[in-house]
């Protein structure tokens, strides 16, 4: 839940940064060009927004169907990575790349957990097979939260 609340405040923070950049470089809407420093801030916010729905949906589904703890951990890592991406991109186009690769890996992790969680739930409901329970047993773990 904390991870979800934190992630919902991040887009607002990025939008505020674009508003400040518009004032700083005197670029009123609907213009989106005019100064390279503004354009990078604008693109950083747009890129983060593009991936945001996928992030929130997979964060939610992975938490619901797989593990809240693991989903929250990946959520924090993603938010941290997107924060780094935004500020890296605001500095230079090159600065966005390392955090972008990092967040891409975390995003794929959330996609995988969501898919596996839903698969486990379906197999338990429709086939009576507890995939997650068997996996935990094989790995010698207690059932994940
Ligand atoms: C259903 C799956 C949909 C999306 C997959 C999830 C995550 C996608 C990741 O965030 C995106 C990954 C981007 C990867 C970019 C790779 C290369 C970088 C591109 C340009 C570098 C060249 C340069 O500017 O110097
Ligand atoms: N809308 C993105 C889609 C692809 C994407 O996410 N690209 C990454 C890696 S090249 C990016 O950082 N794009 C910069 C941007 O969107 O401004 C784009 O135009 O590039």
UniProtKB/TrEMBL annotation:
Its main location: endoplasmic reticulum. It is found in: Endoplasmic reticulum membrane; Nucleus outer membrane. The chain crosses the membrane at residues 51-79, 100-125. It is a multi-pass membrane protein. GO terms for cellular component: endoplasmic reticulum membrane; nuclear outer membrane. One of its GO terms (molecular function) is glutathione peroxidase activity. Its EC number is 4.4.1.20. It catalyses: leukotriene C4 = leukotriene A4 + glutathione; (13S,14S)-epoxy-(4Z,7Z,9E,11E,16Z,19Z)-docosahexaenoate + glutathione = (13R)-S-glutathionyl-(14S)-hydroxy-(4Z,7Z,9E,11E,16Z,19Z)-docosahexaenoate. The keyword Nucleotide-binding does not apply. Keywords: Endoplasmic reticulum, Leukotriene biosynthesis, Lyase, Membrane, Nucleus, Phosphoprotein, Transferase, Transmembrane, Transmembrane helix. GO terms for biological process: leukotriene biosynthetic process. Signal peptide: none annotated. Pfam families: MAPEG (PF01124). Pathway: Lipid metabolism; leukotriene C4 biosynthesis. Belongs to the MAPEG family. Homotrimer. Interacts with ALOX5AP and ALOX5. Catalyzes the conjugation of leukotriene A4 with reduced glutathione (GSH) to form leukotriene C4 with high specificity. Can also catalyze the transfer of a glutathionyl group from glutathione (GSH) to 13(S),14(S)-epoxy-docosahexaenoic acid to form maresin conjugate in tissue regeneration 1 (MCTR1), a bioactive lipid mediator that possess potent anti-inflammatory and proresolving actions. This is Leukotriene C4 synthase. The lineage of its organism: Eukaryota, Metazoa, Chordata, Craniata, Vertebrata.
């Amino acid at each position: 839940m904390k991870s979800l609340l934190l992630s919902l405040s991040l887009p607002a923070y990025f939008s505020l940064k674009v508003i400040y950049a518009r004032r700083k470089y005197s670029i009123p809407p609907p213009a989106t060009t005019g100064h390279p420093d503004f354009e990078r801030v604008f693109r950083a916010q747009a890129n983060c927004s593009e991936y945001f729905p996928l992030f929130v949906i997979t964060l939610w589904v992975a938490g619901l169907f797989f593990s809240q703890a693991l989903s929250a951990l990946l959520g924090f890592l993603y938010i941290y990575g997107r924060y780094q991406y935004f500020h890296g991109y605001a500095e230079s186009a090159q600065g966005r790349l390392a955090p972008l690769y990092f967040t891409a890996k975390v995003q794929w992790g959330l996609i995988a957990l969501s898919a596996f969680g839903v698969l486990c739930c379906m197999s338990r409901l429709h086939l009576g097979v507890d995939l997650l329970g068997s996996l935990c047993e094989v790995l010698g773990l207690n059932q994940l939260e």
